[in-house]
Amino acid sequence: MTAPPQKRLGIVVGAGSVKCAAAIGLFRVLQREGIRPDVVVGCSAGCFYATILALGWDAKRAAELTAGLWTREVTSKPDRLSMLRLLFPRLFGFNERFGLKSDHLIMQRLHEAYGDRTFADTIIPLFLTATDFATGEQVVLHEGRLIDAMRASIAIPFAFRPWEINGRLLIDGFLSDPLPIGVAIREGADIILAMGFESPHQTRITSGTRFAFQLSSIMTNNLLRASFAFHGTAHHDEIIPIIPEFKERIRVFDTAKIPYIIEEGERAMEAQMPYIRRLLGIGPGNSR
Amino acid sequence: MLQITITQQAHVTVAAVSGSLDALTADQLAAAFSEQFRQGRTHIVADFAGVEYTSSAGVRVLLGTLKEARQKGGDLRLAGARDTVRRVLDFSGFTSIIKSYPDVASAAASFPG
After folding, report:
1. What Å distances lie between residue B61 and A16, A237, A259, B107, CA to CA?
2. I need a labelling partner for A141 at 20 to 30 A (CA). Which of A180, A181, A213, B100 fits?
3. Which residues, including other chains, have CB under 8 Å from residue A274's CB and lie 6 or more apart?
4. B90 touches chain A (CB under 8 A)
């Protein structure tokens, strides 16, 4: 009698700005338990962490790297040409390469963190998602330089201009699916640990920016739920949502709260471990 | 481990479920609901007060049961789900299609007499 094939484990880290650091807590638990996934998927800021896991870097290195990567400074410098194009579209030739913030600093930081590594350098197959600006389709990136894929996946509308890869102009992955579970399903994962985050609603609308953020949160959260519902009913095996509960409000650039965010991610993952062990057939003393 | 206790309240069948509803136990619940349909019972309340956890496999069983109950002219209604379980059901969009009540009494009373 042959043993049943081992279940393939997929990890999906969805969009969620600084909250995505909770994925480090998830990694800590995986490493402690000796569990190595078979496929990793990331979207938007979740890409930073999915990539770290796929490269085999440890949780400590991930925490150090993150603290200096996504801070308020990355959006502090305006993109003057885009501003002029916005104010005088005919004079300066407004086009789809529009973003109000300079991406120079975030690209510099991504390069310092990940260098020129490519998807071929990962030890676990990695898939990062972005969205085709022309069609709205989800684009799954699996080759080329990692920081190009990450830059495309974090091309936040209005903030960073879209990023071109292989002739396609790409924007933030959250616009097609904030928690791309479908990619893990397509790549053959049976058991999928999906770490997703709902976007916060604004408590007060005091500016055009907050108004835009509120609209974005409404649309993103509805898309997140609709997508999760579809994949949950369509998948042949198990999808386990790992949803940290943040008692404290986390804002987009609350990097000072990263230790707290990691703890909540670890707590959410720990809560699922007894079930995950049973699903993966992990007993005391053996790993996977 | 999942415990399922079936009781009858007038024309309503109450399935009191406790434990973890997941890929390892979902078939057990599906079989219990199928048995009710086989006996012609289609007005069903799932008492989830004792359910500690549900995963996508559990949601799929609820969805299948809900569709079959409605196709047969009845309904599946949810009672007493804990916040942790409700969160997964909300996140799955399931609470937009199932009628949900705080306890079994109100769920059972919601069926026409």
Report:
1. 30, 12, 38, 19
2. A213
3. none
4. yes
C-alpha distances in Å from residue B83, one per residue of A222, B53, B60, B86: 20, 10, 19, 5
Q: What is the pTM of this model?
A: 0.88
**10 Å Cβ neighbour count for A212?**
14
CA distance A263 to chain B (A): 19
DSSP state of A173: G
The order of strands in the sheet holding B75-79 is: B2-9, B12-21, B43-54, B75-79, B99-101
Q: How far apart are CA A235 and CA A182, in angstroms?
A: 9
Instruction: Tell me the per-residue pLDDT of A51-68, one tens digit each, with 9 for 90 and over.
Output: 999 999 988 888 888 888
Distance CA A205, CA A142 (A): 39
Which of A196, A225, A239 shows the shortest C-beta gap to B56? Answer: A239
From the list A269, A256, A266, the residue with the least C-alpha distance to A71 is A256
Which region holds residue A5: left if phi is over 0, alpha if psi is between -120 and 50, else beta?
A: beta
Cα–Cα distance between A170 and A135 in angstroms, integer? 10
CB contact under 8 A, A232 and B87: no
User: CA quadruple A93, A98, A103, A107: dihedral positive or negative?
Assistant: negative
Does the structure show a pLDDT above 60 at A1?
A: no
**Is residue B35 within 8 Å of B71, Cβ to Cβ?**
no
The string of pLDDT tens digits covering residues A252-280 is: 788 889 999 999 999 999 999 999 999 99
Structure tokens at A126: 């990695």
Q: What is the C-alpha to C-alpha distance for residues B37 and B77, in angstroms, rounded to an integer?
A: 15
